[in-house]
Amino acid sequence: MTAAVESSIQVGEPSSAVTRSQQFASAFDGYRSEIDAHNDRRERLIKTSRDVTNLSKKLIFHLHRMPPPTPTAANDPPRQPTKMEKEAQSKIDEIVNIVKRVAYEEDLDRIGQQCIRYERNLGGGLEEFIEAISFHHFLLHGKLITLEEVQDLFIISPSTSIVGSNGQPLTIPATFLFPVPSHRYLLGISDLTGELMRFATNALGGGGGKGTSDPASVVRSVLSLLREIREALEPFTFLVQDMRKKQAVTTQSLRKIEDLSYQLSIRTSEFGGDEKAVREMLRRALEGGSGPSRDDEDE
User: What is the pTM of this model?
Assistant: First the structure.
């Protein structure tokens, strides 16, 4: 209840010009204004969440077309980013600035209660972005992005330049910080497993990731990471809503990569160094063709 509403219904001697019915009308006008403001803010956040989701999906699509960087040794000079890597970073900056802008305009600061109240309205888009940024981090560094690294993206630096919804530049204080909820980070990482599975299958099938010289290494690294993610997220199955369903999807992705790894080993032993033949047999297997599986061998 706002201070204006509280003051409007305080018990006291009413003036001759204000009747009891007018006091109630004034109080309910305050209620209506507060509810209208809540609904308007909620709708703006939901729209922003949709925008962030769409941009994040476009970023993921872009990342699947981006070949993995060539591995470098520790003493090698810094590698210059490619054109596609620069485009990916530009898309990331666009999404981050959108979240910063709406967080500031809607007062979603870490020290306020608004952030907790409206977290659910922006959470879906934030999950999709965490999935995209973690995939980008894996492609560049071969490991998972941490919650602290995701949070650092939303730190306001002196060089931050953000345009508000009214077209005017915003002056955001350095003390302002939009907090990334830990459960959104966990759910986003869980969604990442599906993209890792697609990345590995594309590398074997000759699609995205074809810039790598050894598709088998891609499968092995993805398989190892999927196992780590599934094991690490299992304790949160009963603590985070929707985690149980996402873990089931992660298990399916893990099983598919395990089958691909098994078939890769079998085909490599059959065809030796004939990489073209191995790729062709794996491509047929990915398309649903015949090929041995672990279940077949067990039988």
Answer: 0.81
In which residue ranges of the chain is pLDDT below 70? 1-18, 68-76, 111-112, 158-160, 205-213, 270-299
Cα 232 to Cα 234: distance, rounded to the nearest angstrom: 6
Q: State the distance between the two ends of the chain, measured CA to CA, in whole angstroms.
A: 68
- Give the pLDDT confidence of 199-227 residue by residue, as tens digits: 988 887 664 444 455 777 888 889 999 99
Long-range contacts, stretch 140-144, CB < 8 angstroms, 24+ apart: 140/69, 140/85, 142/221, 143/225, 144/189, 144/192, 144/225, 144/229
Q: How many CB atoms lie within 10 A of CB 242?
A: 11
Chain centroid to Cα 137, Å, comes to: 12
How far apart CA 151 and CA 179 sit, in angstroms, is: 7
CB neighbour class for 26 (10 Å; exposed up to 12, middle 13-18, buried from 19): middle
- Diameter of the chain measured on Cα atoms: 99
| CB of 193 closer than 8 Å to CB of 230 | yes
Instruction: Give bridge partners of residue 148 from the DSSP assignment.
Output: none
CATH 1.20.58.190 range(s) for the chain read: 39-68+80-180
Cβ 210 vs Cβ 138: under 8 Å:
no
Q: Are 263 and 205 in contact (CB under 8 A)?
A: no
The CATH number of the domain covering residues in 39-68+80-180: 1.20.58.190
Q: Give the helix, strand, coil percentages of the chain, each rounded to 5.
A: 65, 0, 30
Neighbours of 185 (CB within 10 A): 20
